[in-house]
Amino acid sequence: QFTLLGLSHSRPLQLLLFGLVLACYAASLLGNLLIVVTVWVDPRLLQSPMYFFLANLSLIDMALGSVAAPKMLGDLLSEGSTISYGGCMAQLFFLHFLGGSEMFLLTLMAYDRYVAICHPLIYAETMRRHRCLGLLATCWAGGLLHSATQLVLVVRLPFCGPSKLDNFYCDVPQVVKLACTDAYVVEILMVSNSGLISLVCFLVLLGSYGVILVTLRGRFGDGGGGKALSTCSAHLMVVSLIFVPCVFVYLRPFSSSRMDKIASIFYTIITPVLNPIIYTLRNREVKEAMKRLRHGLWFPC
């Protein structure tokens, strides 16, 4: 088994962190579940590719937030932070499977906005439902391939002690450092995998939104341009919160740094909470659909 060093050894600080993480985890589950239910029961939103992808993003966020948070909450209460080898590998696999799928999905959502804004006449034909399903399946398959590659490289390494992981969950950088062999080649392969995927997707996203902003330059005065700009700005906020920490952690040879833990907190705990807030507070259609849902629950007839 491995020993997780966590974020702090101070008991009062651990209890404070327990309350904060519990609040973030509950808000993540409730907020993202609300988005999924709202999109699912509203026919207008469900037929829109953008909101269909948004509901899937919320599903991924609920799952991604559940990879590390429950174990972290238990460790903060019990003062004991150990995890079995199998549990560690499972955390590592699902973290990269869900994280990779989310990165590809965000890239797909940027492509959807690009087609809708820059090529509106062919949008309906390009983003037909069966094509959206195929693109979504490709995102999940890409995440699975990325995660399986990471796992195969890690399980081949020999571990003979010490067994202390300098984090609150299992991730590739900390696990590789515990190998009883020179893992420099594995580190480079990991950086080439996770780091380059994060960087390439991030650059593609920035390029897509750059083209969108140039296209919208002459439409800021009308309602359509302002609505599209608001939607794209919400997407850019989410993209920055996810990709910047990932690029910082994975796009360099592995080393110990307190900043790595802070970055890890962002994309495992905080980002799944902020996604529903960003998308609901800045999106009039989602807020109106939620009002209709609430009215239907209170006045079903």
From TrEMBL:
Alphabetized UniProt keyword annotations: Cell membrane, Disulfide bond, G-protein coupled receptor, Membrane, Olfaction, Receptor, Sensory transduction, Transducer, Transmembrane, Transmembrane helix
Recorded superkingdom: Eukaryota
Transmembrane feature ranges: 15-39, 51-69, 89-111, 132-155, 196-216, 228-250, 262-281
Chief location category: membrane
UniProt entry tagged with the keyword Transport: no
GO molecular function, one term: olfactory receptor activity
A Gene Ontology term for the protein's cellular component: plasma membrane
Gene3D superfamilies: Rhodopsin 7-helix transmembrane proteins
Family note: Belongs to the G-protein coupled receptor 1 family.
Descriptive protein name: Olfactory receptor
Organism encoding this protein: Terrapene triunguis (Three-toed box turtle)
